[in-house]
């Protein structure tokens, strides 16, 4: 099973890909997509094109995505909401199950503490996946955390069936 996490943003979209098998979870890929220049429709089209290529390359069964949380800047929340909508619509068109999580749920799944700092989450991911180099891109790290949370949640849902 392939699980992808996505961290939506207005200019950078983080993604993280995990593989789940009988041996457990392993890190497959992670990185960031840049939405590029232009107005909102052009940026969303750029995002969709790039994300479609990542989805085609990895063929995820599940996508975990962070729910919107409070932003001080109304313009930012609107742009992030638009990106989330484009991401979720693309996943649905590709028949990929989408699971949404709050930042608290994601932090809880990774660190055991829902109010953990961003750096604590990154350090825990580095330990979980035994990374030799630190995660440098916050958006990619957030996406990996969303993927980890989706994997844990899906395992719970599967156990309940």
């Amino acid at each position: 099973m392939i699980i992808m996490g996505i961290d939506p943003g207005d200019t950078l979209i983080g993604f993280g890909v995990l593989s789940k098998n009988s041996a457990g979870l392993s890190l497959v890929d992670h990185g960031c997509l840049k939405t590029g220049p232009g107005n909102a429709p052009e940026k969303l089209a750029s995002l969709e094109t790039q994300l479609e290529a990542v989805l085609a390359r990895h063929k995820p069964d599940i996508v975990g995505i962070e729910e919107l949380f409070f932003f001080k800047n109304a313009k930012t929340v609107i742009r992030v909401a638009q990106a989330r909508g484009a991401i979720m619509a693309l996943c649905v068109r590709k028949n990929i199950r989408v699971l949404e999580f709050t930042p608290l749920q994601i932090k809880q799944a990774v660190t055991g503490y829902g109010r953990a700092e961003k750096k604590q989450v990154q350090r825990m991911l580095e330990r979980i996946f035994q990374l030799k180099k630190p995660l440098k891109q916050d958006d990619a790290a957030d996406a990996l955390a969303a993927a980890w949370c989706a994997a844990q949640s899906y395992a719970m849902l599967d156990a309940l069936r």
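The first strand starts at residue 2 and ends at 7. The two ends are 17 Å apart (CA to CA).
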